[in-house]
Amino acid sequence: MLGLGVERLRADMNRLLALLFHQGVLDEQFLQLQQLQDESSPNFVSEVVNIYFQESEKLLRNLRSLLMDREFSDYKKMGVHLNQFIGSSSSIGAKRVRNVCVAFRVASEQNNRLGCLRALELLEHEYCYLKNKLHELFQIEQQRLLAAAVRYPVQQH
Amino acid sequence: MSLFHVIGFGWNLVLTLCYWFVSLVFSMNGEVMTTKSLLGDGEQIMMKLLEVIAEAMSILISTFHHSRNPSAIDQCTFARYTERTAFERPLTSGVAYAVRVLHSERKEFEKQHGWSIKRMDTLEQTPVHKDNEYDRDGLEPSPVQVEYAPVIFAQDTIAHVISVDMLSGKEDRENVLRARESGKGVLTAPFKLLKTNRLGVIKTFAVYKTDLPSNATPNERIQATDGYLGGVLDIESLVEKLLQQLASKQTILVNVYDTTNISHPISMYVSNVSSDGVERVSSLNFGDPFRRHEMRCRFKQKPPWPWLAITTSTGILIIALLIGQIFHATINRIAKVERDYDEMMMLKKRAEDADVAKSQFLATVSHEIRTPMNGVLGMLHMLMDTNLDVTQQDYVSTAQASGKALVSLINEVLDQAKIESGKLELEAVCFDVRATLDEVLSLFSGKSQEKGVELAVYISDKVPNVLIGDPGRFRQIITNLVGNSIKFTEKGHIFVTVHLVEEVIESDEEIKIESLLKSTLSGLPVADKRQSWRSFVCFNQEGSTSFPSSSLDQINLMVSVEDTGVGIPLDAQSRIFTPFMQVGPSIARIHGGTGIGLSISKCLVQLMKGEIGFVSLPKIGSTFTFTAIFTNVCNNWNEKKSQQISNQSNSVSLDFHGMRALIVDPRTVRARVAQYYMKRLGVHTEVVSDLNHGLSYLRTDNGITNMILIEQEVWDTDLGKSSPFVKNLRKINASVSPKLFILANSINSSGAGVSANGFPTPFVIMKPLRASMLAASLQRAMGVGNKGNSTNGELSGLSLSKLLQGRKILIVDDNNVNLRVAAAALKKYGADVVCTDSGKKALTFLQPPHQFDACFMDIQMPEMDGFEATKRIREMESNINSCIQFGQLGPEAYGNVSSWKVPILAMTADVIQATNEECQKCGMDGYVSKPFEAEQLYQEVSRFFHIKPNQNT
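Above: the input entities. Below: the C-alpha cells describing the complete assembly.
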C-alpha cells in the first residue's frame, strides 16, 4: 500500500514537473538544480528555492513601491531589481517569471509606466503560480520521502 | 565657378586687346612707311634740285659778279632772274646772295653800294608783317667784325635782307661758317624768318673764287670763299606741298622736328590738329649730315575698327564663354556629385546603422533560440547519462549532435556578417577528417532515412587521419552542401567523397571510365563531376610542376558532394553563390532556407585557400566540388595529441581488429564505402557481387569470416536465394557461424520476411554508415565486450571532478540564489567554495596572500561590477608582484609565490562576443554562462587548471 503510494507520488511529481515544463514555467535549469542535490545537502533545492522566494518577494515589494509610491518612478533602480530577478529566476529555472521580467525590463527601459504596471501584475501572477506549484511539488516530495522512509525498513526485513 | 568665368573673360579681353594693338601697329606702320618713303623721295628730289640750282647760281654769280668789275649783275637783274626761275625751286620762298667782305674792305664796300652793313639780332626781336612797315634803315649798322657777309642780291620776296650781315645772325653765322668749310649745302636749325616770321630753314652754299679740289682743307676753302648763296626753305609749305604730292587719302599728321639737340627738339612743322594716336617716328635726311631731323607721323583720325580682330575676339569671347559655361556646368556637376555623395554617405551610414540593428536583432533572436535549444540539449545530455542501449544511445547522440549543429548554425548566421566584413578568422586545430564527416552524416541520417535516399561518405586512404585546420568551418561547408543536396533529392543517393587533389588528377581516367559505366552509388546517372572542377586554377595549371599540395605539410583536399536530385535550372546556375539568392521564390516556400548557405560556403572555401565549383544537370543531379588546404600534422609536433584525437574517435575500433568480413554488393562504389568503414574498424574485407559468389568464397576460403554484410537490395531481390544461403552458411562452418548483417537504407523496408523461416533475423544496420554507429551495431550483434556507456557528458563530469577536486574557489555574486546554485554546482565537483556577495568583499578575499585557486565573478553587480572588481584585483596583484620582484617584500610573506595572478572567470547570463572582449580587456581569463554547463565549464577551467598528478589514481 505504502509502496504503491511512493510510486504514485513519484508519478504525481513527474506529472507535475512535466506539466510545469510543458507550460514553460520551469526549464532544464531546475533539473540541474535537482541534480545538485545529494546526500551532503539533502534539502538543497528547497533551500535555494526558499531563498529565491524571499529575495523575490523583497524584489516584488520594492518594484511595487517604486511603481506606486512616486509620481515619477525610478526606472533605473527598477532595472537593477529586475536584473537581479532575472538572474535568480534563470538560476532556478523559473522560465516564465524570467521572461516576464525581461518584458518588464524592456518596459522600464522605455519608461513605459503603463507597461511596467501591467508587467508587474503579470509578474506577481506568474510568481504566485510558480510559488504554489513549487510548494505543491515540495509537498509531494516530502510525502514521497516520508513514504519512502516508511517503506524502506519494511524492505530491509 | 565665377572665377572660371572671370578668368575666361579676362583672358579673352587680353587676347582681343593684343590683337587689336598688333593689327593697329601693323596697319599704321604700313601707312607711315609709305608716307615716309614719299616724303623721303620728295626731299631727295628737292635737295638735288636745290644743289643744281645753287651750283648754277653760284656759277652765275662768280662769273657775272665776281669775275667782272664792275659787276654785270645788279639787284634788279638778280631779282628778275630769280623770279623767273622760281618755278625751279618750288620749295624755296626766296634766294639771296651774300658776299664775303673783310673788315678792311668794309669802307670801300659800303661806299660802293651806298649802304652800310646792318646787323640782324635786333631785327629778330621785333617781327613785322608788312613789307611797307619794314624799315631796313632802322636796323643798326653792324659793329666792327673781322669779316662780314652782307646780302647784296636777293629775290624780291626777301628783298628786305639786302645789306644785312649774315654773320651777325646766330643761326646764319653758324650756317655760313659751316657751309664754306664743308663746301656743301648746309641747313640751319629752324628759326623764325625775318619779316614773315614764319618758321623756316635756310640752306646755305658757299661760292668760291676758284674751283677747289674735292679734298681741299677747310682753311683753303675759307680763303677761297667769295660769297654765300642762301635759299630760304619754308618747312611748313614744304611739308604741305609734299603731302599734297602724296595725294594720300589717309590724312596723316606729320610733325617734323629738328633733333640735332636731342633734349630740345625744335619743331619745324606742326599739324595743328591734335590727335592721340600711336606715333611713328622716322628720321629724315635733308642732305646735311650735321643736322638730324625727325618725322613723327600719326593718323589724323582714329584708325578704323579692325573688324577681323573684333570678330575673332568676339568669337574667342564666345568660345571662352562657352568654355566658361562648360566649366560652370562641370563645377555644378561636381557640386551635385558631391551633394549626391554626401547623400550617399548619409544613406550608407543609415544602412550601416541598419546593419548594426540587424546584427543586434540577430544576436537577440539567436540568443532567444539558443535558450530553448539549451533546454533540449540539456535534456538530451541528461538522457545520455541514463542507462540506454546502443540504439537509443545513437538516437540520443544524433539528436544532441543535431541540436548542437542547430546552435552552431545560429552562430553561423551571426558569422555571415563577420565573413562579409572579412573579420572571420579560421582556427588551426587538430581534427579528424573522418570523424568530422561522420558527424555530418549523423546530422542528416534521419532525413536521408526518411526520404530513402542513400547517404554515404568515402574518404580516400591517402587522406591523413588528422589534419590541422578549422573543423567547424570545414564541417559547415559540407553541411551546407549536403543539406542542399538532401533538400532537392527525392531518390537515389548523396555521396560525399574526399580525396587529395593529386590523387584526383592522377585518377582522372578512372573517374572517366567510372562515369561512363554509370556505376554510381545508387545506380542512377549523375552529373559528370569532373565538370565541376574544370574551372579550378589548380587544375588549369596542370602540367606545371607546382601544385599547392606538393609540399609535405600542406594537404590539399578535394571534397565532392554528388547527388541525384532535381538539379539546378541552367538560368539560375550563374547566381548560385550570390547571398540570399535562390533558384526561385517557390523554392524558398517548398524547401525553406535563407539562401546564404552557398555564399557562406564559398567565402569559407576561399578562406581555406580553396575553390568551389559545381556541375548540375536538370533532372539528373548536381555535383559540388571544393578544394581546401589544410596543414599536415608534423611528425614530432603534437603527434601525441593527434593520436589522442584519432583514438577518441576510433575508440571502439580495437574491438574488431583483425576480424574478417564479407561484403555482398554488386555495386562497386557502394561496396567500397562499406569497405572503407570496415577498414576503419580494422576489419579485413572481401567483396563479392552476389550471394552465390559469397557462398563459393566462403567455401574456398579457409580463414574465418566473422561477419557477412549484405546489401539490402541483394537480400530483398534475391529473397529466394537468401534462405538457402543462410542454410548453406550453417553447413560450411557450424562452429563459428558468421553473423549476418543487412545494410538497409530506409526504415520501412527491413528484411522482415526472413524470420518466418525460423532463422535468426539478420541484424539490420541503417545507413548512412558511420564508424561509431557501425561499431555499436557490430558490438551489439557480436557481443564484443560492452565497455559501458562512457559518454562524453560523464567524461567531462569526471574530468571536471578531477580538475576541481580540492580547489579553493571564490564565487562572487550579489544574487543569493545564483550564489547558492553556483556554489552547489562547483561543490558537486569537489571544489572548496567560498561565497561572497559583492565586488568589494571579493577584493579583500583576493588580497594576496590568499589560498584561492580561482574566482568566478558575476558581471552585473551593484556598487562594483565584475569588470571593475577584476581590474582592481589585477592592479593589486601587479603592485605586489612588482614589490616582490624588487625585493621590497619578502616572498615568504606571500606564500613563496612570486607572481600572483588568480584566474578570474566571468559568469554571465548572456554570452555575446562583446562580453568576451570586455572580459579580456579587464584581465579576466574567460567566461562561463550562467547557469553552468558542464562542458563549457570544463573547457574554460581546463585552460588554467591542470590535473594534479597525485590525484590521478
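Note for the figure: Residues 245 and 373 of chain B are 123 Å apart (CA to CA).
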